[in-house]
Specification:
Layout: E1 6-9, H1 11-25, E2 29-30, E3 32-33, H2 35-39, H3 43-50, E4 56-59, H4 62-70, E5 76-79, H5 88-95, E6 97-101, H6 104-108, E7 118-121, H7 136-146, E8 152-156, H8 169-181, E9 188-192, E10 207-208, E11 234-246, E12 251-252, E13 258-259, E14 264-269, E15 286-289, E16 292-297, E17 305-308, E18 320-324, H9 330-336, H10 341-347, E19 354-356
Parallel strand pairs: 1-19, 2-10, 3-4, 4-5, 5-6, 6-7, 7-8, 8-9, 9-10
Antiparallel strand pairs: 1-11, 11-14, 11-18, 12-13, 14-17, 15-16, 15-18, 16-17
Helix pairs in contact: 1-3, 9-10
Modified residues (N6-(pyridoxal phosphate)lysine): 35
Cofactor: pyridoxal 5'-phosphate
Protein name: Alanine racemase
Length: 357
């Protein structure tokens, strides 16, 4: 029999969080971001959960758009990185994919009969992808002269600091974007990542595009998903495979990184960094068993980790330990590991089966 380590995916939570995003988006249409295999939840599970709620999905690349079609969904799909080769444009046109074009090389690939509907990326300060605002007039003129302007859907930009409630950079980027695209009022505008939904007074224009919040993770610094009223869409759990009583002075794990100061009942859990659990999560990282919060002790190993069972003395071999889910927010674990919930959710490896709950 295989081990029972599993990631339980909760479609109802994904739908709940989408409706929360829709409520926060106001008049803006909500486009669900399902890139990175649905943020680690499975792109089929994510799109199945949201198929009846949205008309648009967004992904990073062509392979992810194809996966949505293979799952049977005919929604419009935005490719947030555009295409990586000119030949891909014909597939986009045929399949209803809308690439976000962000440089002149991609523009040069547009040709009669090979021009899907597309977006333009505006660089308002993130400085990763996109055209500078002062480049837009020339780009739009060129598109018009080439006969491609009619295929353009709209403009997008991306915020660098929307997760930081104390930063005013998002307001600066918004103003720059609004001014940059003002000459083309009939085209759609999209700026709203997950964090933007939680910024009071933040314009989301025509289409918002929530990602991490759909899966219950927090997009805001210093807040968990639960703090923001979101529901976890993944419960990562693994079984206790042994328990023992340590005496004062006994050490646990590699490097003897944790030493018992008193008699302590501990357990070993069948999950480790080869499963995507963060190696840098150390002593005092929360977990839960039988609905009670417990803590990790010592170093995370490749296939196992140790927990202190003092708060759950009745726990026995075979009981399931929640590494994150409804009792322990993934954002809490991420903070202990010095990272963010996005990385943990997308980092759960293929060795852990996803099961819809």
């Amino acid at each position: 029999m295989p081990r029972s380590t599993v990631a339980i995916i909760h479609p109802d939570a994904i739908r709940y969080n989408f409706l929360k995003a829709k409520e926060l988006a106001g008049a803006a249409t909500v486009m669900a971001v399902v890139k990175a295999d649905g943020y680690g939840h499975g792109i089929e599970a994510a799109t199945d959960a949201l198929a009846a709620e949205t008309t648009r999905f967004a992904v990073a690349c062509l392979e992810e758009a194809r996966a949505i079609r293979q799952a049977g969904h005919r929604h419009t799909i935005a490719l947030l990185q555009g295409t990586h080769e000119s030949v891909d444009l014909a597939e986009c046109q045929e399949s209803g994919f809308e690439p976000v074009l962000h440089n002149r090389l991609q523009l040069s690939w547009l040709a009669p009969g090979q021009c899907p509907k597309f977006w333009l990326k505006v660089n308002t300060g993130m400085n990763r992808l996109g055209f500078r605002p002062d480049e837009l007039p020339g780009v739009m003129t060129e598109l018009g002269l080439a006969g491609f302007a009619s295929q353009m859907v709209g403009f997008v930009t991306h915020f660098a600091c929307a997760d930081d409630a104390d930063s005013d950079r998002t307001e600066q980027q918004t103003a720059l974007f609004e001014e940059a695209v003002a000459a083309w009022p009939d085209l759609l505008r999209s700026v709203g990542n997950s964090a933007a939904h939680f910024r009071r007074g933040q314009p989301l224009f025509d289409l918002s595009r929530p990602g991490i919040m759909l899966y219950g993770g927090s997009p805001m610094i210093g807040k968990t998903g639960a703090d923001l009223g979101l529901k976890p869409a993944m419960t990562l759990q693994a079984p206790l495979i042994t328990t023992r009583v340590l005496q004062a002075g006994d050490a646990v794990g590699y490097g003897a990184g944790w030493v018992a100061s008193r008699e302590t009942r501990m357990g070993m859990v069948a999950i480790g960094y080869a499963d995507g659990y963060p190696r840098h999560a150390g002593t005092d990282t929360p977990a839960a068993v039988l609905g009670r919060r417990i803590r990790l002790i010592g170093r995370v190993s490749m296939d196992m980790l140790a927990v202190d069972l003092s708060n759950a003395p009745e726990a026995r071999e075979g009981d399931m330990v929640e590494l994150w889910g409804s009792t322990v927010c993934v954002d809490e674990v991420a903070a202990c590991a010095g990272t963010i919930g996005y990385e943990l959710l997308t980092g759960v490896t293929a060795r852990v089966p996803r099961v819809r709950g």
